[in-house]
Amino acid sequence: MALLSIRNLHKQYGSTTAIPSLDLDLQKGEVIVLLGPSGCGKSTLLRCINGLEEHQGGSIVMDGVGEFGKDVSWQQARQKVGMVFQSYELFAHMNVIDNILLGPLKAQNRSRAEVEAQADKLLARVGLLDRKTAYPRELSGGQKQRIAIVRTLCMNPEVILLDEITAALDPEMVREVLDVVLELAKEGMSMLIVTHEMGFARKVADRIVFLDAGKIIEENTPEGFFSDPKSERAKQFLAGMDY
Ligand SMILES: Nc1ncnc2c1ncn2[C@@H]1O[C@H](COP(=O)(O)OP(=O)(O)OP(=O)(O)O)[C@@H](O)[C@H]1O
Ligand SMILES: [Mg+2]
């Protein structure tokens, strides 16, 4: 069984159908990059998977855990599925380590010593251990985003969802963040990634899933997708991209 099985997912915003009916499996250790034009439903899909948006039909099932919102609460689901956003979502009034510890201490009732030891290791890995007591306003965008990744990792999720995490960064900071994600992929983290960085998509993905109007139009290997896309729609999309 796949780690995450999405079946007949239907998402409606009022009278707008964002996702008519979508099936997608994520295997353990797999990295899927979701591509598609603006408004095709990439963020909606990620937000439905961890319950930030309610879906109106279908199911999201995690192997060994069950159906989100049915067998397990969305609060429990969000501990299994971490998400990193374009806008970091760090608390401005808390320093780095307090931002990182908040979820594990409050939602997971873990001991401060245990989580802090894990946090220290991860901060060192992303080169930010010396910024442990800094406040978000004292950090660059790239640093804030690496902290946001560490915060997500400290929850020990099974899957991480990344929604355009470099889109708000100055170009010189994109690399330092994407390198962290490439490392995670190499270590076998299961991820669903939305990105506009095509070179990165090609490098990090095991599979490219191309969406249009809330539907999967094409699934392909990165090589296949970028050098010889099967669908007309994907050809058009790639022709309009600058990479
Ligand atoms: N909160 C909302 N209320 C109403 N409609 C929404 C809402 N969020 C998204 N939509 C609509 O749902 C569709 C999918 O939007 P979504 O944000 O998922 O696209 P996206 O692929 O992430 O686009 P982008 O690449 O611009 O981020 C669009 O038609 C959008 O207008
Ligand atoms: Mg989006």
Automatic annotation (TrEMBL):
Xref: SMART domains:
AAA
> Could you tell me which PROSITE patterns the record lists for this protein?
ABC_TRANSPORTER_1, ABC_TRANSPORTER_2
User: What are the alphabetically sorted keywords of the record?
Assistant: ATP-binding, Cell membrane, Membrane, Nucleotide-binding, Transport
Q: Where is the signal peptide?
A: none
The chain positions of domain ABC transporter read: 4-238
InterPro entries per the UniProt record, alphabetical: AAA+_ATPase, ABC_ATPase_HisP-typ, ABC_transporter-like_ATP-bd, ABC_transporter-like_CS, MetN_ABC_transporter-like, P-loop_NTPase
The protein's GO terms of the molecular function aspect are: ABC-type amino acid transporter activity; ATP binding; ATP hydrolysis activity
Q: What is stated as this protein's family in its record?
A: Belongs to the ABC transporter superfamily.
Q: What PANTHER family does the annotation carry?
A: AMINO ACID IMPORT ATP-BINDING PROTEIN, PHOSPHONATES IMPORT ATP-BINDING PROTEIN PHNC
This protein is called Amino acid ABC transporter ATP-binding protein
Q: What is the lineage of its organism?
A: Bacteria, Pseudomonadati, Pseudomonadota, Betaproteobacteria, Neisseriales
